[in-house]
Amino acid sequence: MTVGTAGPMEGVKFGYGLDLSRCVGCRRCVYACAEENNQSRKNPQIHWIRVLEMDKARGVDVNHSDIYYDAAEVPRPGHFYMPVQCQQCRDPPCVKTCPVGATWKEKDGIVAIDYDWCIGCRCCMAACPYGARHFNWAEPDLPAAEMNPKTHVLGNRPRPKGVVEKCTFCIQRTREALSRLRGDLSRGRPEVREPAGPGKRDPPGHGMTKRVFILKEELATHPSFFYFYAT
Ligand code: SF4
Description:
Layout: E1 2-4, E2 16-19, H1 28-36, E3 50-55, E4 79-84, H2 93-97, E5 103-105, E6 111-113, H3 123-127, E7 134-135, E8 150-152, E9 164-165, H4 171-174, E10 211-213, E11 225-229
Parallel strand pairs: 1-8, 2-11
Antiparallel strand pairs: 3-4, 5-6, 7-9, 10-11
């Protein structure tokens, strides 16, 4: 097992774009994430990504979504699917509420947690409007044979009982350019860059003429996670 400590790259700010028109609600990303990030398999079973099933007639309506739908029957007619995980907010309420400074925002936009400092008070869970933080109620169940040995100290290293954990944009991969499509929001690369704004379309010729939005925009948390419809 290796525990990496790679820090933020100078001038880089990470973002995430998710094409809702392609998501079929299979939850394979949920289980792939659990494997990559060494999440407890059962008792407690922890998932950093939760996929919401929503009614097309209602549009994006978290209050009327279902996370317990049957993934063997997807996609269900009249429904669409929306994976939700830590949004790496630019103004993260979870960070403001932590009484011991165990969580903070890194220069590249990733909201990190130091699991050695976390006291398990769960204030951050109450503050997060996206349900993105998860508490280890019991000794995590992670069979040695299933462990991903490539870890980062602020990311997927095994966590102890009694701490809160969450997605870190796969910090152990993104900081080594191992993500699928990686980009720097601050440099204006056409296929990976900050969209024109929620609800707006980018002008033609910018490589991204899509309907883009962020979740719970009204809360002013300013997520680095952008949902869009490519078709
Ligand atoms: Fe914090 Fe929740 Fe925002 Fe993630 S989504 S940065 S846990 S407030």
